[in-house]
Amino acid sequence: MTTNNTAPNPTTMNVNMKNLIYTVLLSMLLAAIPSQLFAGQKKTELFETIAARKQQFAKLYNEGDSASLSKMFTQNATVVAPNFPPDKGRKAIKAGLDGELAMGDCTIRLETLEVSPLSDASAYEIGYYHLKIVPEQGDDIVDEGHYVVVWKLGKDKVWRLQVDTWNTSLPL
User: Fold this and answer.
1) Which domain CATH number covers 71?
2) pTM (2 d.p.)
C-alpha cells in the first residue's frame, strides 16, 4: 500500500475556492433575475388590469349606468366624496351615483397614473380625473383633480373598488 505524502498545493486550493465562490454568487444572481423580471411583469399586468377596470368605470359613468357602476364596488365598499358623509355599501354608493348622474349630462375622463400592490388580493391606484356635468339649466359644472382607489380582488378573480376618494385641484 502506498501513501501520498505530498501536501496539497495552496495555489490550487485558492483557485478552486475562488471558482466555488464565483459559481455560488453567479448562481444566486441568475436565480434572482427571473423573479425580478416576473415581479416587474406582474406589476405591469396589474397596472393594465386596474387601468382597464377604471376605463370600464368611466364608460359606465358616461352612460349613466349607476346599477352596473355600483357592482364595480365590493359589497362593503366606502366612497369618501369631498364635503359629504361617506357612502358605505353598494346600496348607498348607488344612491350617491344616482344623485350625481341626475344633475345633468355627466362625462368623466380618468387616467391611471400609478398602481401598486398592497398584497396578492389588494392594490392601490392613484389617478387623475376630469368631470363635466351639463345641467338642463344653468352653467356647466367642471371639476378636475386626483383620486385614490383601494382595489380588492374578489374570489371570482375580479378587481373591485374597496375605497374610493378624490379631491379637486381647482381653487375654491
Assistant:
1) 3.10.450.50
2) 0.75
